[in-house]
Amino acid sequence: MGHLGTTASTDLMAGCDTLLIVGSNDPWAEFYPAPGQARAVQIDITARNIGAKYPVEVALVGDAADTLDGLLPLLPERQGWRSEVEGFVQTWQEAAEQHIQQETDSLNPQRVVQELSTHLPTDAQVSVDVGSVVYWYTRYVQLPSGVPAHLSSTLASMGSAMPYGIAAKLLHPDRPLVALAGDGAMQMNGLSEFITVAARWRDWADPRFVVLVLNNGDLSEVSWEQREMEGDPRFPTSQEVPAFPYAEYAELLGLNGIRVDDESQVADAPPRRRPPARATRSRGVIAPRIAAVAISAFVPLDSD
Ligand SMILES: Cc1ncc(C[n+]2csc(CCOP(=O)(O)OP(=O)(O)O)c2C)c(N)n1
Ligand SMILES: [Mg+2]
Fold this sequence. Notes:
single chain; 9 strands; Rossmann fold
């Protein structure tokens, strides 16, 4: 919904007459239905969240799953609506396909993330940083059933992808991990967290720990927010991220580093196989054969 949403969620909200908010404290009030448009019911385990962002008529304090179990039998069957929603989704998917195919000067990050999505192993775990990659994650990543994604959604704190990824890996060392991060987040803490990965990957039953660094030389999410919301021009002194050789850094740590800076390399994924005992060199957006890797995808800087 909102900044992170799709045309499908906008279409849905535009025609919404009854809103059920379940365990959400979404702060972007402008993207809820207009005041007076919808009647709302909110479920939240924390009572103070109810009505905080949208006026609700019925407050249900409690566990979301239990409350929904109680509510569902009370809902009358509604014919036809599902196909309407499927139409919204279809329209969005056509738009998304155009975004993915769009030609850019170097790499289209939407294409990189979408391609990665198609290679996600069915037992993968995903961790996501805070930055423009959240948009690409919400729009272009299709998580296989049972694949969790770990995000800093309440705190929205940069630097989440690597520590969340390491935590997920410690919990399930037998599952491959894919971390999606920006260059700003990597320079904030991800590079040093990568030392932990280098020190530990041999202990993991499945050593795959793939880090995609979207290297745009910019704190892009915020430089765009400032332009959109506040009308401020980009202020390079505060927004530029220094150049850094992410792939070479991975190699320095004894891992694999792959730099992808050309469209033709994006789809160049190797066959899916179990990883060998030690890291081997490979290429592609996600390389199932490699133990741990930093993929530094060079994406274009947005113009002012
Ligand atoms: C700890 C912290 N500092 C600042 C912010 C504000 N913020 C959100 S995204 C972002 C920029 C992220 O830059 P980068 O990791 O390079 O990703 P990009 O948006 O360029 O893809 C900033 C500064 C934040 N959410 N958390
Ligand atoms: Mg960046």
